[in-house]
Amino acid sequence: MKKLLCVLLLMIFATSADLNFLADNDYQNFQEIEVYDGKLLSQFTSAEYKTYYKKIKKRRFSGWNIHKVNEDVHVSYKTETLFSYYNDGTTAIDYEYEYEKKKSSNINITSTGSISVSATGTIKKFKGGLDTSLKITYEDKSSLNEKEAWKTKMHVDPGTQANLYTYGEGKISNGVASRYFFWILLDKGGYEVFSVTTQYYRLEKTSI
Amino acid sequence: MRKIANILIIGLIVVMIFVNYKANIISHTKLLMTQNTFYAVAQNDEQFSLNIEMFLNQKNILTDKKAIAYMYVSDIDNQKKIEANQFEINYLTNKTILGQKYQKYSYNLIFKSLKGDFYIEKAYLTIVLKNDEVKQFKIGKVSALYMFNDEAESHLLVNTLFGTKKEHSFGCLDTVTVLIKPKVNVKILRIKLNYQDIYDINEVISDEKEFVIHVKQSGIIYQKSSVLIEYIYGLQTYTTTIEQFLFFDIISSDAENGGINHIYELNRTN
After folding, report:
1. Is A59 on the interface with B (CB under 8 A)?
2. Residue B74 near residue B52 (C-beta atoms within 8 A)
3. Does the beta-carbon distance from A203 to B252 stay under 8 Å?
4. What pTM was computed for the model?
5. Does ipTM come in above 0.95?
6. Are B233 and B34 in contact (CB under 8 A)?
């Protein structure tokens, strides 16, 4: 009977699906982020932290207290210039640019205080199960290695600079959280989740 | 008493195994998914190409180039049909769509130039295997505009090019902005994105001018497009073409739009 039970338990494990949640963190390096009707975590004042912390001070046996300050606030951002091509010669040049997608996770995170973020390579996520409490769903790590490339041809006249740059839209959710275990405070601080929705490409030519 | 308990435990475990099996059975079915996409490309005097994206949940004979005899794009009754004279299949990435894990592949089909505009309103990709099996999948719309008298940017320059996405759409172009700087006086006849989005301008420009094009399409993925500018210089009509420009990329969406997906269950012989 015991053997049968062991076999059946093994079959449960074998038929269970596995999930792997991952994230990376690079949105703080964006050239510019504009937040509509809200604030970034980095813009929270000490007085605001003090007010928000009052809402998460109730001790509990185990788990996270969360106070959401901004939820799914629309943001726009400017990231990087993909290329700049100068033609300081005397003849026009036909230039073919090939862009290989460097796809990053749909979710980027950051934290303050004692809430920590795991740092395994470039992939990061909140420690202590805050991700689960915030119901964050990350893309699978393997989906980040997209090999797609696209080409665009352009004509660059003498004395002209051609630029291709990216900008986009996303959503920000942030707030404060505290974690307890046996009614003892373990972690407390701010969290922020930045979700990229759309990335745009813009071609511009200017005189040098 | 102990026997009853054991029987109950075993019964419970069997139910759990059955639930797990039912939850995972979909992942054991061979699925292929295409997304309703607008393939808007330009054709030069020699050739044009289509990059068709396909999603498969398992490795499959359809991703094996050696197993494929040929491929063609057509309408449902083959009244309009173009056969690829070369093709490549490339794995791109893994993707989870509507809870199902897929491997995303790019089918790059190269066609001989038709030297004339060509379009298919409801296009299908047909894959003919060397074992004579034929598979057909809906892919969306195809437009291949011909770049006649293409003068690159010798009479005018495309100084700015960008687009916006239709609000609340899964990934459809809303507007395209083109800033044209003429080198000589030219009469801009029209700007064409595809066979449906053609904007008549008929305006002589001698200085830099911005044109904003409002795209008619919706309910279809339309992120990459060709941009053809038709103009008159002297007495001759020319074209300046941006053959392919990616206007935007959807990184994540609030809702994965089921309406754009065509999911095919492949039979066991695949």
Report:
1. no
2. no
3. no
4. 0.79
5. no
6. no
